[in-house]
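In the present case, backbone shapes were mapped to integers, as reproduced here:
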Amino acid sequence: MVGASWFYRDAADLLTIVQRLKLTPCPHCRVMGMLIRHGALQGIDETSGQIVLRARRVFCSNRNARTGCGRTFSLWLTDKIRRLKVNTSRLWKFLKLAIHGPLEVAIRALNSRLSDRTWQRLWRRFLLAQSRIRTELANRCPVPPPPETPSHRPEVLVLAHLLAAFPSVACPIAAFQHAARKFFCSRQMERRLLPLCLPGLRGTASDRQSPQQPGPLFLLPEELEQ
């Protein structure tokens, strides 16, 4: 259970984790017996616009002569993604739409409260994470055979592999997060300047470059963190 990100599916899962906290070493300092519950993380849900529970906080106590490190970490619901209002079900629906047509059509079909640019950034984040996702899936499930109708889009193969790894679940992305104990779309590989040379996205940064000046576009770190 030790890792940078922990996930739980429901109240029963959370109860099991909480009951074992005193027997679990802190993921930061590795000291055992100092973990206690420390409140909750809440955020606005993209579909309802309401404030919802996203994660539970755990504290490695250094108070009252305890020997913990004083740092915290989170127990995330499997259908939530860090720093995103979008839950895994909406992301799964968006990706299925995006691989079968233009990105703009997929965004319109969602009827979302979020801007088009937000979904474009989310799509870009998924494209940049494909290698990490496929590597994790390959450790859990053999690569499925190619589809009968060949596709030049690698993201189609990523979703096919995801479905093969988690065939009987309502949301494969939530199942991936719970099994891998990692967020589906991580920002760890996006913290440097990256050329925007991905198909279908060349028009998303028109405010940075005019049509008379073609060439690679670049994303700044502050954009990647949104």
Q: What stands out?
A: The beta strands are 6-8, 35-44, 51-60, 72-77, 194-196, 217-219.
